[in-house]
Write a structure and sequence with these properties.
Layout lengths: L1 H26 L4 H10 L4 H11 L2 H29 L10 H7 L12 H16 L2 H4 L3 H13 L5 H31 L4 H8 L4 H7 L1
Length: 214
């Protein structure tokens, strides 16, 4: 697999990374703090999990929350549990771009490179949001996917092919989660006589407490 990635994407990866290195040199590390913040927001997909949990507190947005949570979890399983160890690709900062990485003093990254976990998480969450909410507004999340990809390449944490693979895995995970969520809600709606099913479909988590306080 490593040989295939090197032969198929080697020149592509190097040309893109070299372009970002030239950007860093010409801008005098002006973009470095910005890209560090962007990459921090995608760490472990925690911000997306937290967003999904908040949505699940309310019946009107619970379906979207379940879908987003499932998409990010599915992406994490495929990327971090299966593909990273299977491919075992060293990060660019640990191999051919080590000298540039040490010179630029970027934050060190652990684990293997292919695919990008950050990209998987943000791609899964963004497409899930797009599928679950009004398309007129939910598309605005996609530019952040590009920013996250740029940050991972700029900081020498990933090759561009890692970023593309993360986007693909994230999108696939989102579609899987979307249709599984649909099946779950079909089942729940058929069993509204069950208290748990009725709660999931119709009740807010804090509704009972609010009623007692009133």
């Amino acid at each position: 697999m490593l040989e295939f990635l090197s032969s198929a994407f080697g020149s592509f990866d190097k040309s893109i990374i070299n372009g970002f290195l030239r950007l860093s040199e010409s801008a005098g590390a002006f973009f470095t703090p910005f890209f560090k913040v962007i990459t921090l927001l995608g760490e472990k997909g925690l911000i997306f999990f937290a967003f999904a949990i908040v949505l699940m507190l309310f019946s009107k947005t619970r379906k979207a929350g379940i879908c987003i949570f499932g998409a990010v979890a599915c992406g994490a399983l495929i990327t971090n549990v299966i593909l990273k160890d299977m491919v075992a690709r060293p990060r660019p900062c640990e191999s051919e771009f080590l000298s540039q990485f040490l010179e630029l003093s970027y934050p060190n990254e652990d684990g293997y490179s292919f695919p990008s976990g950050h990209m998987t998480a943000i791609s899964a969450a963004t497409l899930a949001i797009f599928l679950c909410f009004n398309k007129k507004f939910s598309w605005i999340g996609f530019p952040f996917v590009l920013l996250m990809g740029a940050s991972r390449i700029y900081l020498l944490a990933h090759y561009p092919s890692d970023v593309l693979a993360g986007i693909i895995v994230g999108f696939i995970s989102s579609v899987i989660a979307f249709y599984i969520t649909k099946l779950i809600y079909i089942f729940l709606n058929k069993h509204l006589d069950n208290k748990f099913c009725d709660f999931v479909i119709n009740k807010d988590v804090f509704a009972k407490k609010q009623k007692e306080n009133d």
